[in-house]
Amino acid sequence: MANVITIASKPGEGAFAPPEAEKPKPPAAPADGLLVTGRAVAQIRAAMAKQGLSPEEGAALRLGVKGGGCSGMSYSMSFDRRQRESDRVFEFGGVRVFVDPKSFVYLHGMTLDYEATLMRQGFNFINPNSTKSCGCGSSFSV
Q1: Which helix (H) or strand (E) holds 76?
Q2: Contact, 125 vs 5, CB < 8 A?
Q3: Fewer Cβ in 10 A, N or C end of the chain?
């Protein structure tokens, strides 16, 4: 069972939240890689532009995992211009994604999606390797 980790505000509840059945589900990532949805790619490009970066000029998204957080591990996202020799490199919609080998152990098969509703907006890490997550929504354990 995949846990969904959200980096943003709490999911919408109450009269303004669409019922679960109406929310579109992102496609599953391949078991030997990861997937970044079109919605996430659009937001990554927008965030890069705000920082004066461009995928066409070599900027990439670096996804990682670091120790810490309520459940033991937390996700990290940053922009990077340099690919490390041991990085796994993926490309989605012209945006390169770097993942170091240690993080890939925890991220393989993960889907990075972006959600924007009336109640919340942010990136969602849909990770089949996660066995539990905490209430803050930014950490997990395996």
Answers
A1: strand 73-80
A2: yes
A3: N
Q: What angle do CA 98, 99, 104 make, to 5 degrees?
A: 160
Distance (Å, rounded) from C-alpha 112 to C-alpha 125?
5
- Beta pairing, strands 60-67 & 35-36: unpaired
Q: Nearest to residue 105, comparing CAs of 126, 128, 82, 125?
A: 128
β-strand pairing of 3-8 with 73-80: unpaired
**Per-residue pLDDT tens digits for 74-113:** 889 999 999 999 999 999 999 999 999 999 999 999 999 9
Topology of 29-141 in CATH? Answer: Hypothetical Protein Aq_1857; Chain: A; (2.60.300)
